[in-house]
Amino acid sequence: MKLKSLLAILGLAVLGFACTDTDHYPLSGEECAPGDPVQDLSVQQCAKAA
User: Fold this and answer.
1) Secretion signal: which residues (predicted)?
2) Using an 8 Å Cβ cutoff, are 15 and 22 in contact?
3) Predicted TM-score of the model (pTM)
């Protein structure tokens, strides 16, 4: 039962991230510019920083 609940929560989180606006920063709402340094980041770089 706990596994099903966990999978449901993770599924909803993934769906929520899939629908995010990629043209704006999520916290500030500022528009992303083509020259922003974060445009060059990869998932692997973020995982190493955490």
Assistant:
1) 1-20
2) no
3) 0.35
Tokens 């995010």 found at: 20
Triad 31, 34, 40: Cα angle to 5°: 110
Residue 31's DSSP bridge partners are 24
Q: Which residue has tokens 């528009």?
A: 31
Mean pLDDT by 10 residues, the chain (50 residues): 84 66 76 78 66
* Euclidean distance between CA atoms 49 and 2, whole angstroms: 31
Please give the backbone phi and psi of residue 27, each rounded to the nearest 5 degrees, phi first.
Answer: -85, -45
The position carrying tokens 């973020």 is 46
